[in-house]
Amino acid sequence: MKSIFMTLAVAGVMAMSGAAQAAPALYSQVGTQNTATYSFTAATTGNLTGYFAGSKADYENEVGMMVNGVATGLFGLNNKTSAYGQAFNFGNVVAGDVLVFVLSNIKPGNIGPWYSQTNLNSDLTNHVYSSYYAGDDRLSAGTYVAFEDKPRGGDFNYNDISFVFSNVTTEVPEPASIALLGLGIAGLGLSRRKKAVKA
Asked: What does the buried/exposed string (b/e) look like for 45-83 if buried means 16 or more CB atoms within 10 Å of the residue's CB?
């Protein structure tokens, strides 16, 4: 029993650090709107780079960014022409800058735009899901952001078009990591309690 709790504790810590993650954690509540509210900020002063992580969207889209409420005017990583891992420099940011990601529709051209900040969306629907990604041979480690590109959230799979952003932090931790870490800590507490009772 003790080894099970120790395994859970280690798994929780590894999941929190992203060390065991081979691919970005996908949205698990497909069919229901993501209720998480994300607050993205620049981690350090310097360039912010985005990497194309994939697309299953029928629409053609590009991603842009607002910094402290001001649009940068830079859009890139077109989901119909970008290759997995392709990078785009979104420009210079200052540590603590507030970031809002923007999905701009190119074709059919009459959808959105969709923002990572729900109250900016014309349909008042959350169009993003985010988690930490540890990286791979073509994607940098960073903040994974996946968009739902259809009005009113479409099928709510949050897998239509996705990116990984370096130099970005978010205030909403991945729920699965928190659950694993909680189980690990509970297991350690139970293990210590049993030792105290035996002594």
From this structure: eeebbbbbbbbebebbbbbbbbbeeeebeebbbbbeebe
